[in-house]
Amino acid sequence: MSATDTQPFEAPTPEGVPVLEAKRLVKTFGRVVGLDGVSLKVFPGEVLAIIGDNGAGKSTLIKCLTGAYIPDEGQLLLDGAPVQFRGPQDARSAGIETVYQNLAVSPALDVASNLYLGRERRKPGIMGSLFRALDTKGMRADARAEVQRLGISTLQDVTVPVENLSGGQRQAVAVARAAAFGSKVVILDEPTAALGVRESNQVLELIQRLREQRVPVIVISHNMPHVFQVADRIHVQRLGKKAATITPDSHSMTDAVAIMTGAATV
Ligand SMILES: Nc1ncnc2c1ncn2[C@@H]1O[C@H](COP(=O)(O)OP(=O)(O)OP(=O)(O)O)[C@@H](O)[C@H]1O
Ligand SMILES: [Mg+2]
């Protein structure tokens, strides 16, 4: 039997309705096919990893899930109902929070302000409505509670400017922001790239915590040990297509790399 006759391996999914589902997404850039009919599902309390070589379409896929790109074809469903995001704000309003590959935190602002960036709260009453005064105290208190809830132990002080934080702590702020507001799905593109062992572990713990809170996480990573540590299922992307969906139980890291590079078909 030739490789084209074999169905790609598709690990079983949990029962029920996926929180987020993509059906046969297509996204082209001129003559470059970024995504060629890619489907994906993520269920409550599940960590779905997306792996694949450079240029395999991982970032394009998540951008199509988050309104950053509008797919040429295909469908998105949130809790089983079709949705169309015209931009990232639509996806955020729907409860999908994303930390993009080139992560954006504002270095000059403190941790609390970064958490509330773009969602600043005004003071109650006339001070807020008329004078547009920010509810700094309230936001800091909530930021503190959020940081505690997420167990980011190294972020002791939410009034510290982010530029004074280490790379890992900055990443933690970005992930915390996504975790704080991602009521439906949290999407992380390479959250542990360029982080040290300790800092990476903090981000991985945060992912575990989100899973415990039943918030599905989609995480792109090139780091196979991290992927195999946190993922329930692993979507393998290759040359714009889904090559397989495997699990840490069904396949080894060596298998995963073989599927990624095309050395194996399942
Ligand atoms: N805005 C764009 N304009 C033109 N081509 C693009 C654009 N975005 C992505 N592509 C192309 O689509 C393909 C998939 O790119 P994508 O960024 O999704 O890869 P990736 O899997 O995230 O890679 P990496 O591991 O390097 O981050 C590549 O060939 C890329 O050059
Ligand atoms: Mg990418």
UniProtKB/TrEMBL annotation:
Keywords: ATP-binding, Hydrolase, Nucleotide-binding
Top-rank lineage group of the source organism: Bacteria
Any one Gene Ontology molecular-function term assigned to this protein's record: ATP hydrolysis activity
Gene3D superfamilies to which the protein is assigned, alphabetical: P-loop containing nucleotide triphosphate hydrolases
Entries under PROSITE patterns matching the protein: ABC_TRANSPORTER_1 (PS00211), ABC_TRANSPORTER_2 (PS50893)
Enzyme class: hydrolase
UniProt xrefs under SUPFAM superfamilies: P-loop containing nucleoside triphosphate hydrolases (SSF52540)
EC code(s) of this entry: 3.6.3.17
Keyword Acetylation assigned: no
Domain ABC transporter: 20-264
Pfam families in UniProt: ABC_tran (PF00005)
CDD domains cross-referenced by the UniProt entry: ABC_Carb_Monos_I
Protein name per Swiss-Prot or TrEMBL: Ribose import ATP-binding protein RbsA
The encoding gene: rbsA_3
